[in-house]
Amino acid sequence: MHIGIVGLGLIGGSLALDWRRAGHTITGVSRSGETVALAQERGVIDRGGLEVSLLHPCEVVVLCVPLDRLVAMAIAVCPHLKPDAILTDVGSVKAPVVQAITPFWPGFIGGHPMAGTAEQGIQAAQPHLFRQRPYVLTPTPQSDPRQLAQLQTLIQALGAQEFLCDPHAHDRAVAWISHLPIWVSAALLGAFAQEPDPQIYALAQQLASSGWRDTTRVGGGNPELGVCLVHYNRENILRGLRQYQQELAQVIGMVEQQDIAALTAYLHHSQGLRHNHRLDQEIGSSPA
């Protein structure tokens, strides 16, 4: 199969690596000639360039650009595609993207591989990044079953865990487990920064270990990503923030009342929830 990858960063480059090793032909498109040259040098792509017209022979095209550039890129790419080409993306919000693109390209099927690393760019691309990681597809009732089956075959070749769901269901689910944690983590960092005693603040920084690092990691990430997620998934993030606010208010009340029995029961309950969510198993590291 001839696959086009638009955007040769960590995700696009890693997809290209795996699919090329599986025997597919890969055409890569990037805004940077240096990136294209490096991708060819590393054996990530078969051919590449800066022009989206290179995608015309491709049977499948994957848009691996930032969320706020997806629709504009689809508009630029579609005039160059074959009529039966499959178009998909890797964005972490699906409903508004699907709603924007499918009217002018019915063969668009939203996608979201939930994997990543802290590194970015073509230099970070690696084989097997998606192995045993969730890869979501969000077909609509209008999606061609044969095209969906072709995408599913490609995802299976990655060794990923394939999920099919409605775009709106996807966005509500990832708001809880990916988007909301960014803002919870950022708020914790902001609260800590308000410690009025500089000596206490410095001491806490020196004493901080893995628990603090894990809890605040996503809040210290890419600011543009967090704001972009709010722009495209605002209602679901707001719903989560308000529910979280209610939980905090409940905890504050129990602490103020020194209700040890209620606090103990609350933590036993949360312990059980975490166990049921199987969060101690290895999971994807992407915040989005």
Automatic annotation (TrEMBL):
One of its GO terms (molecular function) is prephenate dehydrogenase (NADP+) activity. Keywords: Oxidoreductase. InterPro entries: 6-PGluconate_DH-like_C_sf, NAD(P)-bd_dom_sf, PDH_C, PDH_N, Preph/Arog_dehydrog, Prephen_DH. Its EC number is 1.3.1.78. SUPFAM superfamilies: 6-phosphogluconate dehydrogenase C-terminal domain-like (SSF48179), NAD(P)-binding Rossmann-fold domains (SSF51735). Residues 1-285 form the Prephenate/arogenate dehydrogenase domain. One of its GO terms (biological process) is tyrosine biosynthetic process. The keyword Membrane does not apply. Pfam families: PDH_C, PDH_N. Belongs to the prephenate/arogenate dehydrogenase family. This is Arogenate dehydrogenase. It comes from Gloeomargarita lithophora Alchichica-D10. The lineage of its organism: Bacteria, Bacillati, Cyanobacteriota, Cyanophyceae, Gloeomargaritales. The gene is tyrAa.
